[in-house]
Design goal:
single chain; mainly alpha; two-stranded antiparallel sheet; 64% helix; globular
Length: 421
């Protein structure tokens, strides 16, 4: 639902940009006509005020999505100053959470490889952080050593620009697809041999709060839609294409989840699923598939910080631009990763709060505000062909109500859990 809302807002943003350009052209034409006499009938006709909606009529589809308008730009177009700042704060918190999760996940994987699964029994033993790794060095110490190395190797990318990452992203996506497929196949093979250890209950309500955060992370693509949808040449069936994409993703997640719960003992499942695949003391999946994302997210977060504090016509001093912004981008998630490597909590909190804002609240508000902005300039004949099937205002308010309910439920669960402890 919110994906279709974002696409409607993208189409409205394209129409808004066309309207502004047309108004600018009219101003330029008006300025050039001032060189002539006001008695000239051609000039009088040109200088007459616009009496019809600027986007109505004609054969041009003003709502065609041909320009990539990112979420931040749409927020600047349709929100007031407070709304724009709230959007950037939300996406910055979300990206901070992303960085903290990657910063913790990579050292955890390296720790598992270095310390090894001493039982060699495919994850049948769960270790404590205080257990020894190398002599007097505990597993926590090893984790922090790898986190330090990870920071020193990938942290410097935050101070530079991440341009031309096309092939890096293609390689990362390919490795992720291979990893997905391998995990499903290996779990099915193990279940087929009768070695499955999972005896899942019919239902367990204790995991519902974290389910919200995990689902937000699993299906979060709203902030990437401008880059995904705009390059599509034929957008007549973009809705069906997006629906098919979601069905494919859901199918993979269902296969991954059900093979996991029947393959592994639920009490021994790691927060990061790939760590469950140990055999003969070797972790099958390297960490390179997730390491490549860290620099890209870091640069994106740094640029969002710059945009949040940007003032028209102003530039940042070299120290602020090249040192301060990278440091405020890199330091907080690394500090969080040093303090905790509980991926379940990191995913649950980040997804439940900031992720809910990006996936639910922002799309709904963008659609509401974009409709109000275009109402004065869009005539009845200028129908938005990318209007959401859930175009009625009821569905928009339902999304906002759903988001508020999820946040209250998750917050109440966190408070009750802390009280019980």
């Amino acid at each position: 639902m919110t994906t279709t809302l974002v696409m409607e807002a993208m189409a409205a943003a394209n129409a808004q940009l066309r309207w502004k350009r047309r108004k600018q052209e009219e101003v330029e034409d008006s300025d050039s006509s001032s060189e002539y006499s006001d008695d000239d009938p051609v000039v009088r006709g040109r200088a007459e005020p616009e009496t019809k909606p600027i986007l109505s009529g004609g054969h041009v589809d003003h709502f065609e999505i041909v320009e990539r308008v990112e979420m931040g730009q749409m927020a600047s177009m349709f929100f007031n100053k407070v709304g724009v700042n709230m959007f950037y704060i939300c996406i910055i918190v979300y990206l901070y959470g992303d960085m903290a999760i990657y910063a913790a996940a990579v050292p955890i994987s390296l720790m598992e490889v270095a310390c090894g699964n001493h039982s060699c029994s495919a994850g049948s033993v769960k270790y404590n952080d205080t257990d020894p790794c190398w002599g007097s060095v505990t597993r926590t110490d090893a984790y922090r050593v790898f986190l330090t190395v990870f920071t020193l190797l990938l942290g410097p990318f935050t101070f530079f620009s991440a341009q031309k990452t096309k092939y890096l992203q293609i390689l990362t996506s390919l490795m992720r697809w291979i990893a997905f497929t391998m995990m499903i196949v290996l779990a099915l093979l193990r279940i087929g041999k009768g070695a499955g250890e999972g005896r899942p209950p019919v239902a367990s309500l204790s995991g519902v709060p974290n389910l919200f955060g995990v689902c937000v992370y699993s299906f979060m693509c709203q902030h990437s839609l401008p880059s995904l949808v705009t390059p599509i040449s034929d957008k007549r069936r973009v809705g069906a294409l997006v629906l098919a994409d979601y069905v494919l993703i859901l199918g993979f997640y269902v296969l991954l989840s059900f093979t996991a719960i029947f393959c592994f003992d639920s009490s021994l499942l790691h927060d990061m699923y790939t760590l469950n695949f140990t055999d003969n003391c070797h972790v099958l999946f390297p960490v390179f598939t997730i390491s490549t994302n860290f620099p890209i997210i870091a640069v994106t977060l740094r640029n969002n910080w710059k945009t949040l504090f940007h003032r028209d016509g102003g530039t940042y001093p070299w120290v602020v631009d090249r040192v301060v912004f990278p440091l405020i981008t890199l330091v907080p998630p690394i500090v969080v990763a040093f303090c905790t490597h509980n991926l379940e909590s990191l995913v649950g909190i980040t997804g439940s709060y900031a992720g809910t804002g990006i996936q639910y609240v922002v799309p709904a508000c963008l659609v509401l505000c974009s409709r109000r902005h275009l109402e004065p300039v869009a005539g009845r004949g200028a129908a938005n062909k990318h209007r959401s099937p859930f175009g009625h205002a009821f569905w928009v308010w339902f999304v906002l109500l759903w988001a508020a309910s999820c946040l209250m439920f998750v917050t109440a669960n966190i408070i009750l859990t802390d009280v019980q402890k």
